[in-house]
Amino acid sequence: MSSDQPRRTRKKGAVKHDRAGRADVPQPDAEPKIPKQPAAKRRMVKPPATEPPDAERPDQRQPDAEQPAPQQPEPHQPEPHQPETHQPETPKPRRKRASSGTSAPSGFAGTAGIPTAPDTQGSPDTESTAGTSGTASTSGTADTEATDQRMAQVLQLIVDLATGRLDARLEPSHAHDELDAVITGINMLAEELQEVYGDLESRVAERTQMLRQAQSELERLALRDPLTGLANRSLVGDRIAQALAWGERGARFPAVLLLDLDGFKTINDSLGHTAGDAVLVEVARRLSTVARPMDTVARLGGDEFALVIPDTTAEQAEEVAAAALESLKEPLLVHGRSVWALASIGIRVGAAGETTDMLLRDADTAMYEAKTSGRGRAMVYQESMHSMVQRRLRVVSELGSAIRSSELRLVYQPIVDLASGRTVAVEALVRWHHPHRGLIMPDDFIPVAEDSGLVVDLGYWVAEAAIKQVSEWQSLLDDDDFRVYLNVSPVELRRPGLSEYLRDNLERFGVPTNRLALEISETALMSQDVAGLLALKGIEELGVSLEIDDFGTGYSSIAYLRQLPVDTVKVDRSLITEVTDDPRQRVFVGAVLQLIHSVGCRAVVEGVEEREQAEVLFDLGCERAQGFYFGRPMSPEAMTSRLALQARLARGPDGGR
Ligand code: C2E
Ligand code: MG
Ligand code: MG
């Protein structure tokens, strides 16, 4: 009988095979018949029992023991079943099909529905032959049913694997027939597939983990300041919005504190960026200590920090601000040097209907006010500050043209020798005569000029006007030591070319260099960077002397004073306000004067408004003084008259001849 002619009627659900022995796809109506396997981890589908349950495992059995007597092979029957093919894991070598003579892929050829192992089910031909006997017929039917059942299991296995249950396996029967070869092959493939899949899964898990890490790192970068680890601008915005929302739902509204370090740029420029970073990290740490767990401390960028205090009052916010300022009073040790990172703080307390942007903007305005009104303090935002900001913006836009169109004027305040009462120097002070707003004092535009950089052009204008003025006073100046003092801001000093500009103008107006002196405030001097110090050196080499202004308001150390090329120190007026009434202040001022003398400098005290003050200062050994008592800042004409009178008096009635 040809293998092309199936001998048995195929049952529903059985697998149909083509000529080459390839299994057809099961008919759809066959599917419900396939017993569904529950999804299990790894399971072995048991083959139908073809032997007693107590039968030994095939690999333990003797080839002939307990096996039904083999049917007599047909003459064309291929080689009898070999015992070694009992190993279930190894696909059996394909048995030759005498009738077809076609070959198929190893282990899968002539598979389902074509039982071949004579020791279990008999060959089709054997079955055919045996079909004449009643017993053989019964056993043939049983074989067919068993085969169909196994086929169903194979199909179920394929379905299981196809639906992703890669742990599904089917235990080959003891028949060791071609179907078993298929089963073994499928099992092996499934094993391989499961391994590959497992490998793939672990790689996917690994990559997923890497992705998660990258994502959380990205989130951290997106919400945290990398230097300090504090919240960044984006996160602080969220926190303010959240705290405002709590306020709307019945809690108290939040306060936003905006903190900017005073003179941080100088620390950065003079000590380097690494030191600057160390300062920022330490400031962040100290600010974190004053915050409650529910507060948010953030670095908005540069030297600007923010504190968000939810559910609070203006008073509580001011207390936190005071604590923050207090925490910064202790000096920081950076590269073996003590530096102070003092700060100015603006406070804005939220209210119903307000937004994050409003709070941040107004806290910034209040912070700016704190800076311009003396630094190192905290100020709560008020409505009036908004108009100040507007005014400041207007000043910046108008000051540039004011410098060019000569709206600026210089006034001169005398500096007198306390022993003789003579005017031995003058300080040039700038005024802005605005065409519409009238006289504007320097405190109202110098800080804005410094912020905007306009102070450089302003300084050049002042220097040129003052040098020209001294050239006009030359004939009145008998005293070789007479000087005109100019105020110079750190921004001007940092810009290269100041000493060249001064030298050119001194030459142009024929003024000896020793007639000119520059005043630099103590805080500005303390925070000089390399460029600033080089500029000081260049100015000193030019022969122009230097003075420390507003001494006593900063944190000069005696050692630092010694290093600077200064010859005069001007004591701030805040130090002498009570000098006549308070003996302790007198002792203190006396000590300050001694300190100045000990480093070889001359002392000037400014802000002397009363005769008694002048007398006390003279008694304490002060050489020079400046203040309303000796003369208010005056026009060049008024100063010319004063100097002329002084010269006339000095020269006597005969004009000094
Ligand atoms: P400063 O250099 O400390 O100048 C002294 C200030 O004290 C002047 O204020 C002066 O009018 C004032 N003053 C003098 N004697 C007395 C006194 O007895 N009592 C009181 N209450 N005040 C007195 P002014 O002219 O308003 O200048 C303020 C500041 O503006 C100056 O302080 C200086 O830092 C700055 N400044 C003035 N002119 C210039 C300039 O041309 N360039 C730069 N960069 N800054 C300038
Ligand atoms: Mg001054
Ligand atoms: Mg001063």
Q: What is the straight-line distance between the termini?
A: 157 Å
- Give, in spatial order, the strands making up the sheet with the most strands: 10-11-13-14-15-16-17-18
CATH fold label of the domain at 401-651: TIM Barrel
The biggest beta sheet is recorded as: 8 strands, mixed, barrel
- The amount of beta strand, in percent, is 5-15%
Secondary-structure-derived class: alpha/beta
Please count the beta strands (DSSP E, at least 2 residues each).
Answer: 18
Which blocks of ≥5 consecutive residues have pLDDT under 50? 1-134
CATH homologous superfamily (4th level) name of the domain at 401-651: EAL domain
Tally the helices.
19
CATH class (first level) name of the domain at 401-651: Alpha Beta
Short structural description:
With 657 residues, this protein is α/β, with parallel strands linked by helices. It contains 19 helices and 18 strands. It is 43% helix and 15% strand.
What does this entry look like structurally?
Among the domains are: 20-30 and 47-56 and 86-122, no CATH class; 233-382, Alpha-Beta Plaits (2-Layer Sandwich), CATH 3.30.70.270; 401-651, Alpha-Beta Barrel (TIM Barrel), CATH 3.20.20.450. It has 19 helices and 18 strands. It is an alpha/beta fold and 657 residues long. Residues 549-550, 570, 606 line the site of one magnesium ion (MG).
Which short descriptors sum up this protein?
657 residues, Alpha-Beta Plaits, elongated, binds magnesium ion, eight-stranded mixed beta barrel, binds ligand C2E, alpha/beta, 19 helices, TIM Barrel
